[in-house]
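User: I'm curious whether this sequence folds into something compact or stays loose and floppy. Could you predict its structure so I can see for myself?
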Amino acid sequence: MNEGQLFTNFVIIIITFIFAAFFVAAEFALVQARVTALEEMQAKRDKPSTKINRAIKMVTNLTEYLSTTQVGVSICGIILGWVGEGTIEALLTDALSLPSWSLNNSVIHVVSAIVGVLLLTYFEVVLTEIVPKNISIDIPIKTLMFVTTPLHYFHITFYPFVWLLNSSANGIVKMLGMKPADESQDVLSQSEIISLSRNAVKGGELEHNDLLYMERAFDFNDKVAKDIMIDRTQLTVIDINKTVNDAIKLYLKTKYSRLPVVADNDKDKILGYVFNYDLIRQKQINGDVSLAKVLRHMPTTPETTPITEVLKLMISTRVPMVVVVDEYGGTSGIITDKDIYEELFGTVRDEIDNVSDNMISKIDENQYRVDGKTTIYDFERFFHVELKDSEDSDVVTLSGYVLDNYHNIHEGETIKLADLNLKIQDYRHSYIDSFIVTTLSK
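Assistant: Here's the prediction. I'll summarize afterward.
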């Protein structure tokens, strides 16, 4: 091979390397770039950009344009194999043919062929695969903007060939009983969305509070009335036979703006509720009348009703309080609109809330005082643990769970749940008022 041929071949190899790197960079840029980022970039411009519109089209029709880049990579690979291997082998053959090596021709050709393939493979992998791939992963949008225009025209030129390849591949995939990539939907699961959002928080693209609201929103859809209700043992009720003046006294004592009204002082017989506005207005007329005069209707819902449906019920009936009933029709508890809002926004304290009323309060670095009325869901979420068989249990509170699983427990005893030690505090009347929870180092 003369010097003119060697020079020409080297120029072809270098140009092919550049094109191969271009197609690999384009391939990874297309995969890494997100349509939302491109649309946001377009929205910030005063005048729409043709290049950005083309980039959006490419990312939207990902399978088609990935096939285009693969065609380009394949063409470059064929050229490098055809020209490059022979050129490097010829150079090595000339070098090894020098008298100082004293090698016969068969050995020279074998060594030249092996070393030529290894060298060409090394440079091809490093310069046309790894380097452009890393660049595209690091700056996908900038890379995509750089390759968009030439890739667009290459796609137009080779479109018939790309279409033929895609159609052939889709036919084979369908024969195997699967859907082609362009027919399947790119849908993310809840866990994938949360995982991506956590990465966005780490990268500074998303506020931690936004992630918190997102996690609560997903949890919100999985909860039912029983999970967030105020248990019947905590309800303050008033009998229907009491007067408006009696209800006002109870209102001033408890500061609850709405009070459930029952018959025969039985919480299983909730008739409705009274509103403090109605009570005060009626007192100005006659405060000695029965509560039936100002009684308002309160809807009921089963324990298993999703809280999204409970909220819809409140909105449709324009009643901010709902009775939760068990399978036998007895009262399990109530849900207020505030209970639902707090599932999304966290604890919302108003003028009558006592800051010391937290169900879980920190004592020191690894110890907490936990109220027995704390729901199992809130306990698991706060301490990031899962209590065994809690999902299959009918109990709602931590106290109920412990008593249900440890029948012979006594005050002062310590039990282990998950990675926590729970010391029983204030055990009276078959109910545990509070626990001292100690977190164990893993």
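Summary: DSSP finds 16 helices and twelve strands in the chain. The radius of gyration is 36 Å.
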